[in-house]
Sequence to fold (364 residues):
Amino acid sequence: MREPILIGLFKRDRGGFITLGALFVIVVVISAANLLIPPDSIFHITGYTVTLIGKYLAFALLALSLDLLWGYLGVLSLGHGAFFALGGYAFAMYLMRQIGDRGVYGDPVLPDFMVFMNYKELPWFWLGFDNAFFAVAMTIAIPGILAFIFGFLAFKSKVTGVYLSIITQALTFALWQAFSLNDLGFGGSNGLTDFKDIFGFDLQSSYTRAALLWASFFALIVSYAICRFIINSKLGCVVAAIRDGESRVGFFGYRIVGYKLFIFVVAAILAGVAGALYVPQVGIINPDRFSTLTSIELIVWVAIGGRGSLWGAIVGAFAVNYASSYFASALADYWLYALGGMFALSTLFLPKGIAGLFARRGAR
Fold:
């Protein structure tokens, strides 16, 4: 009798099982303490904490997507944050269309920034984003299509290593410059914000925030299962072989471009989904999410957590973002130095990250 797929995926993945199990407990406790315990109780957890953990879950999904690309395919992208931002913008456009006449200027069709910029009609690329299904589809399609086109041209041209990293950085820089323009129709440097509701539910409601928290957790679970299924399959074995020796795999007749392109597109789609989950919880998306710094921070999360483990990327995303929040308040003038020092120390003493540390202990 065949065992269930989920059990098979986690059977040899103790780290993933423990990590996701711990996150499940955290989500249950936080949502219950926020919704069921009275606000005047010391055990009540505020809506801010619910939103913060939801944001961390979205970042964990983003880190997971990069670990699939970097940890298992060996492609280091310095522009992976661009797909996160594109997914965020796609869903933010839907949220903006839901505002209607509740905006500052009361226009039932045009968002406030378009009224301010004297737009006479809605740009063609905003059409359809008043429909939730269309918006969700674009959240997946836009990052996926861009990744397919970019990846096909790069991999077909046999661009690898540091050169590929540089052109991915150029891609995200070009997008950052474009989305910063006021005339492009995406809010310029201010971005998109002031969202009111999602799927007809008030975004300021505690129940909506808890629902978004659970949606982020389930998206992380499903994405983790997809990534684990890929790397445990025959396709995953070929992908790992490409990482370790691309020329040798090509010598055996495998179509390397197809394998690399598939992983690149899947990673981009997962990053786009993470962006779509991030936006309604944080309440804003702007061109800063396209910045190279965002993608470099993402690499730090994965490196500290331990690339090539999947669950390590999740742990790294939570650890680094929590540390950033702590250092930003405790060491307001020096928190970037503290974060850099943490990365340097982990590189020196934990070259395989947190996941590698636990792997060594488990082997003893």
Observations:
- The first helix runs from residue 5 to 10.
- The mean pLDDT is 90.
- The chain has 15 helices and four strands.
- The domain at 5-363 is CATH 1.10.3470 (ABC transporter involved in vitamin B12 uptake, BtuC).
